[in-house]
């Protein structure tokens, strides 16, 4: 059950199916082979970001003197902002900017930046993984497993971006994004409440 919760949380944050329109737009000038290579690279980069964050995120926080309760409150607020954007079926401001999108059009390889970072694995994903990783080794292992599964989902979604986009349509993808936004909003409240409780009990 805990693994399912972690996976659903990552799926809502990364939202690979919601990123399909961005993938199609960014790879317009690519051949079929190049698009498959971009999808593979984005999937691997997604797994790498989750893995590195799960294993080293807490040490980075410690280096800056940031406590997990602080991250829970701050990360919860950030997730709520992302959730509101998803309710409106819009990309979250923390994920990418118009300037980054314009710059991506000039890049030879857009799989890592901006497709994976920050479009798929933005600050919300990073902070959430760190918060979960603080729960112990068992949870870290589940994060690593969920990260691998998410990599497969990203690869699948991007490789079938055209058919999925035609089948679901923009309305279908927007509905999916709004449902993921509802999950994130609930998770954001949970994180904020946990962070406040930790401060009160400290």
Automatic annotation (TrEMBL):
It is found in: Cell inner membrane; Cell membrane. The chain crosses the membrane at residues 6-26, 38-60, 66-89, 110-133, 139-158, 179-200. InterPro entries: Multi_antbiot-R_MarC. Keywords: Cell membrane, Membrane, Transmembrane, Transmembrane helix. Its main location: membrane. It is a multi-pass membrane protein. GO terms for cellular component: plasma membrane. It holds the Pfam family MarC. The keyword Ribonucleoprotein does not apply. Belongs to the UPF0056 (MarC) family. This is UPF0056 inner membrane protein.
